[in-house]
Amino acid sequence: MSRGYFGIGVEGISKAANLGAVLRTAHAFEASFAFSIGADPRALEVRMTDTSRSHNHLPYYDWDSLDEMRLPKGCELIGIELTEDAVDLPSFRHGLNCAYILGPEKGSLSPRAQEMCAAIVQIPTKFCLNVSLAAALTLYDRALCFGGYSGRPLPSHLTSRQRRKKSTVDQRDIAHKSR
Question: How far is CA 61 from the centre of its chain?
Answer without folding.
Answer: 18
